[in-house]
Amino acid sequence: MNRVTRTAQRWVVFAVAVGLWELVTQLAKAAEAEKSFFFPPPSEIALTAKDLWFSSAFGDHIVPGISRMLGGWALAGVIGIALGILLGRSRRAMAYLGAVFNFLRSIPPPLLVPFFVAAVGPTNMQFPTIVFGAIWPVLLNTVDGARGVDATKVETARVFRLSRAQWTFGVVLPSALPKVFAGLRLSLSIALILMVISELIGSANGIGNQLVRAQRDYEPTAMWAWIVLLGVLGYLFNTLLLVLERRALAWQPRHSLETQALATGG
Amino acid sequence: MNMLEVDGLGHTYKGKDGSHTAIDGLDFTVGAGELVCVVGPSGCGKSTLLRTIAGLIRPSRGTVSLHGNKVDGVPSDLAVVFQDYSRSLFPWLSVTRNVEFPLRTLSRTEREARAVEALAAVGLSTAGKKYPWQLSGGMQQRVAIARALAYRPSLLLMDEPFASVDAQTRFELEDLLLRIRREQDTTVLLVTHDIDESVYLGDRVLVLSKSPATVVAHLDVPLGPVRDQITTRASDDFVELRAKVAGLLQGAPVTVR
Question: With respect to CATH, is domain A55-250 assigned 1.10.3720.10?
Fold first, then answer.
């Protein structure tokens, strides 16, 4: 199958769905159906989105929102990978910490918002909320990956007297990398969710902030425009991460990559 | 000169459900440039023996000395070729990088030169840029052998190195090993459960008993340095020796007396 047909195949259902949506909402609008005000046609959403996204809101709200999300996710990634490698190769660490981590991970991350509002104040709590929520999938996946270095590789490393740096960055990290990326992808979607949710409350700017404002101002089309933006951002970042992953894991046989992407919702 | 001296070597694993003695009272030597095969029944402790010699396991009793130095931890001039080549190689490194990886103390040019030389010795000069999974099993084991050769060990240990490849490939790799040690004068200790292989490859064969493994017999193999899969295996000496080893393995308890 060539590239064009594959792209067409990927987008055909999406295009049909949007078309149907347009049809139904236009009909509802023409019939002045109850609540049709809250369901503007996609074409109207698109026009509003174009105005909103490329206005001053871009610098005032979209950039701050994305920075929080990516910054929080990156920090969670760095801490998660470093700690995960360390703990994953320790014989006892996870015996002590496993239960604590699983408990903390089990707390639905959005519920941390009230805590961080109280602890650091409503205007500063977005970043720590994102970091704390996004760290668990990377951390636990990295631990899992680092633990999974097989016995033969451990013995090979010992026989050839590899240095500590070679062992950590040349053996453990690459062994864990497929799982690390699976964790990073989960964390990315959590970071997106937490970015919006944390911005709904107390934030002076951001996409969530604008979403709430549109709701208060009774502007459903603007609300939809922000919701669509979140979808676009989620899709975009996930795609970029997949490209990065394919490069970093280029040494893997192709089929195993695609199975993993499917399994983790990539 | 003795490259390897094993003296009163024994190892007992202590577990929750009692202890298990894998090897006991092993005494033997391997001279420089010799290829010695250790053959024994499955599960007799061959792997334990190899791991104590490599310094991966600290033995409960006895000593291992490599050119006169007592082994305590993995010696710097020892290499191992493991049975499971697909796990022993690093799949994220190309073939050349796999071979170069353990040579971190050398300069870049020297590393490259050693890799080129070692890959040529195993007949993989053109595969350097490939990843291990792109190669057949036999070729992957050649990469593992090249990696060990590039390390230039005083002693090369091989743990059932050809047990995971098909028969045809095994013959090729056996001949490759014989050629390499003729050319490079490598000292090799090879552990196998395959009687024919031990006789075909070895200058000497050490026959081990069932667990706990002790040395039942040292046999010299008078087949000369150049061997051939068809004529050597059909020769009287070969047939007689393989029968002798098989008898020793089957009748191990009787021989101990």
Answer: yes
